[in-house]
Design a protein that fits this description.
Layout lengths: L1 H18 L4 H13 L6 H14 L6 H8 L1
Helix pairs in contact: 1-2, 2-3, 2-4
């Protein structure tokens, strides 16, 4: 049941970027942090989302995202 909620949350992050473009880096960063703190996520996928978030807008990368990837 928890995995179902996790999958739905990850899907919502993706849908948010499709419906409301413009803050993709922020949303990807939030998604990556959620993935990192969840046991259902795979490390490789989580790292890829972190990288995509930072590459999307390096100058506006959220400090929490940068901290989480280094931690």
């Amino acid at each position: 049941e928890k995995k179902l909620y996790y999958d739905k949350l990850i899907t919502l992050y993706d849908q948010r970027n499709e419906i409301f473009p413009g803050r993709e880096a922020y949303v990807l960063g939030r998604k990556a942090i959620t993935m990192k703190t969840n046991p259902y996520a795979k490390n490789e996928e989580t790292y890829d989302v972190f990288v995509r978030s930072i590459e999307a807008d390096v100058k506006k990368a959220e400090p929490a995202t940068l901290y989480a990837i280094l931690k």
